[in-house]
Amino acid sequence: MPIAEMLARKPKGIIFSGGPKSVHVEGAPSIDEAVYAGGVPILGICYGAQLVAQQLGGEVARSGVGEYGRTALEVTTSSALFGELPLQQEVWMSHADSIAAPPPGFKVTARTEAVPVAALEDRDRAVYGVQFHPEVAHTPRGQEILKHFLYDVCGCRPSWTMVSIIEQAVEQIREQVGDEKVICGLSGGVDSAVAAALVHKAIGDQLTCVFVDTGLLRMNEAEQVEETFRRQFQIDLVHVKAADRFVEALNDINDPERKRKIIGETFIRVFEEVAAEHQDARFLVQGTLYPDIIESGTKDAARIKSHHNVGGLPDDLQFELVEPLRNLFKDEVRVMGEELGLPEEIVWRQPFPGPGLAVRIVGTITQERLEILRRADAIVVEEIKRAGLYRELWQSFAVLPVVRSVGVMGDERTYAYPIVIRAVTSDDAMTADWARLPYDVLERMSSRLINEVPGVNRVAFDVTSKPPGTIEWE
Q: Which of 67, 121, 135, 474 is catalytic?
């Protein structure tokens, strides 16, 4: 959109977001510098702050010391962004380049041990920048920083409500599908469940939900989905048993991107077959969230992994997609689910990836490995619930790397698989921190995994945050 057209809409403020590029590389995202003369407050975040610095005469350089994850920030002078907040606080970083010198007229308002310019501002022009990410949950005072910008600098007032979002979504769904038949890919997770409830609110009996048993699910998941959605909610549910089909399609596939694309395409083929049996339904509902889109890659965002419902979709897709949650994060979807009346056990269920256990087996898929991982994952979740930690964690699960290690059990040599326990805290999955699980919980899980799951002789605990790691291993 041309800057003049954007300014004509009289925005209250403008935010330049973060991104994976360096301001120095060819084709890096930029913006018409006329925006700085528009009189509209600007906040640059991470890459956005570097862009502000570069365009207004500062210096951006690669210092040789990147910052990833939790970082200590020191506020060095009074600032409109930090207001009454503490001078020492934790923030979440993810950058390689740094602002080496601020532009003329700017003052530095915060620093870290590695970066001398972690925040800067020019109050006269109402242009601000922060090298860290205030928008993520792992910057504890981040929401307050954003409120200072929105309320104190821009003069905004809070008017967003979940009820208004639902009403707007219902109207858009009705406008998109009219009186045609619609099918919904229902996994039993919170995203697809909320999407189904929202679309059902909009079009009622025009909707048919399709649950595909891929053979890549958690223990007893198919039975739980049947019980919840067919019997408790009386939803028109088609249960497709396609385990052999999915596992066969994944035979000898090792690369995680290929796994995701194969699974995404196989889902679509199954949905096409069901649609043909239901008056050739032309619309497919998916519980796609904003993080799915970003991580799958966009023009301005690097591909981290192709989510099966975004980057894994086939080129010859015959459906028109209905994705009412695509601009929301998981925490917002949970609020919507509660507003729509979904039960707590669905709304607060930990996320489970669409490709299922296929992206938690690091290597090729076999029925033996699936069974080992399924049993191991059930033990991890049982112990997390037993410890009263389930609601505190974003995700907790088991990973099976396809390697073997030597062990000794019953005074005999074993050569078996390790299980890696992964547990993280997060609000939106864009960032995550590894959970500090109590030692006694880890001990119980380790003991049970080795004693109760044949083929396992070693247990490890993943202590990697996101970034630099991802939550899932593939």
A: 135
